Amino acid sequence: MAPRSFWKGYLKLSLVTCPVAMVPATTDDEKVRFHTLNRKTGNRVVSQFVDSVSGKPVDEDDEVKGYQRGEDEYVMLEDDEISAVALESTRTIDIEMFVPRESIDWIWYDKPHYLTPDDPVGEEAFSVIRDAMEATGRVGISRLVMYRRERAVMLEPRDRGIVLWTLRYGDEVRDRDAYFGDIKNDKIDSQLMELVKTLIEERKKPWDPKMVDDPVQDRLLEIIAAKKKGKKRPAATKAAEPDQSSNVINIMDALRKSIASEGKSKKR
């Protein structure tokens, strides 16, 4: 069963408007979560804000946001002051512009959401906006208040719906030249290139979501199930340590041995 939408509002392009619903495209509901307990009593431990100097608990009414401007010096901002700077984009996705799909690098993508029509009457308007973006190879850019902050969002047509991506803020993406700029751009030996291509071909497989399964979570569930039944927990498996002594200097020999090993594995 499809999850209930966590946001409802309107998709707007100029004078064309239609009601839409949105739900996160990803979920962590199946992840193993832990509570912190008091080992002696078995009761849950609760967190509490305390004054960093006096050590005394702080009442919720006395909690306020603070922007640090110096050591132990802050500018206090009240909730109404913070709310006053937000735009009124909480319930309408007003598409302000369209850009080529390939012009937005993947590193700007933050969190995906499924956007669907929320009313049969507005389905035609939704569909024509979706199909026009698909036909022109463009994605829509808008702004929307989500997760208590206003964000730039990208609307991408996908199948019969639209995927809405929240985009990272400009100060969240680091300049890649600062990290990649010093890497040498020497010409790669053509023989080495062909050997690596062969190795890639040997390991080629179709995409399968099972490739990103979480083995750690599976192991945790085994331990939890064993403890529920009162059984001894499964023995921990020690990860194999890499062989530090075999520091291969000859890349060509290493690649040839790798390809030979791949071939033997396939025969088996």
Descriptive keywords:
single chain, 268 residues, Ku70, Chain: A, Domain 2, 8-stranded mixed β-sheet, 10 strands, 26% strand, DNA damage, Prok_Ku, SPOC-like_C_dom_sf, DNA_bd_Ku70/Ku80, Non-homologous end joining protein Ku
Present the secondary structure layout.
Blueprint lengths: L6 E7 L2 E9 L40 E6 L2 E5 L1 H6 L7 E3 L2 E4 L8 E9 L5 H14 L1 E9 L2 E10 L2 E7 L9 H4 L9 H13 L12 H14 L22 H17 L1
Parallel strand pairs: 1-5
Antiparallel strand pairs: 1-2, 2-7, 3-4, 6-8, 7-10, 8-9, 9-10
Function: With LigD forms a non-homologous end joining (NHEJ) DNA repair enzyme, which repairs dsDNA breaks with reduced fidelity. Binds linear dsDNA with 5'- and 3'- overhangs but not closed circular dsDNA nor ssDNA. Recruits and stimulates the ligase activity of LigD.
Keywords: DNA damage, DNA recombination, DNA repair, DNA-binding
Subunit structure: Homodimer. Interacts with LigD.
